[in-house]
Write a structure and sequence with these properties.
The chain is of the alpha+beta class. Helices cover about 15% and strands about 35% of the residues. It has one domain. The chain is built from five helices and eight strands; from the N terminus they run ββββααβββαβαα. Strands 2, 3, 4, 6, 7 and 8 form a six-stranded mixed beta sheet that branches. β3 and β4 form a beta hairpin. It is globular.
Length: about 220
């Protein structure tokens, strides 16, 4: 299945089980473009944002949805400004995952959907917010060690998402109703609350992610 590229230039309610702190094998399950999000501070400009969510197969959690009990792999997500400039937070995250810097050619039009379905090591920490609640937070991403690569080559299923929603790629500039309906309601509301533009970029179709691990650089 081809996904529309998302390019980067040079809840109230019950508590959920937290992903334990540490290093976890993770699969990028969602790449969601939120559009230009309004700033809560007049001193700072509105920012074009992207939400990345990861499935962690090694951590099992239970939850209830529409009165039914479910069990599956844990999920954790994080927001970034959609930029790989030198001062961005997304760039070091991706560089740590790739294990190499971006070339000038890649900087010109990096398609962040290239990470969908890719496997990494994800560093997770716990932080206490001003409200006193402890939350799991993604600290960084790293490439796989050789032993992990060998296991994935032997059994590619270990590197595939098990979420019933499958892989999710969405951008409001190229609306896909099927993908939209897979998004959680709170994320739909953030996208609906974006700063509208009269005309957005014309996204073409992205290539399908490949299920192989022969290349040491995952994207």
């Amino acid at each position: 299945m081809a996904f529309p590229p998302i390019k980067a230039s040079s809840k109230g309610g019950k508590d959920f089980e937290l992903v334990p702190p540490g290093i976890h094998l993770a699969i990028c399950q969602s790449v969601v473009h939120l559009g230009i999000q309004p700033s809560n501070n007049a001193k700072f400009p509105d920012k074009d944002q992207v939400y990345l969510r990861f499935e962690i197969p090694g951590v099992r959690v239970k939850w209830e949805k529409k009165g039914e009990a479910h069990e599956g792999s844990a999920m954790i997500g994080t927001f970034f400004t959609l930029s790989i400039s030198e001062k961005s937070n997304l760039r070091p995250f991706l560089v740590g995952w790739r294990g190499k810097e971006f070339t000038p050619e890649e900087e010109d039009a990096f398609d962040i959907t290239s990470i969908i379905g890719k496997v990494c090591q994800l560093s997770v920490i716990h932080e206490q917010g001003n409200d006193g609640k402890t939350r799991a937070k993604i600290q960084g991403a790293f490439g796989l060690i050789q032993e992990q690569k060998d296991k994935l080559r032997a059994d590619p299923r270990l590197g595939q998402v098990t979420s019933p929603d499958g892989l999710i790629v969405y951008t409001p500039e190229s609306h896909d109703q099927v993908m939209w309906e897979r998004l959680p309601e709170w994320l739909q509301k953030k996208i609906d609350g974006r700063v509208k533009k009269e005309a957005g970029p014309d996204y073409s179709q992205s290539q399908v992610p490949k299920d192989d691990f022969d290349d040491d650089i995952p994207f």
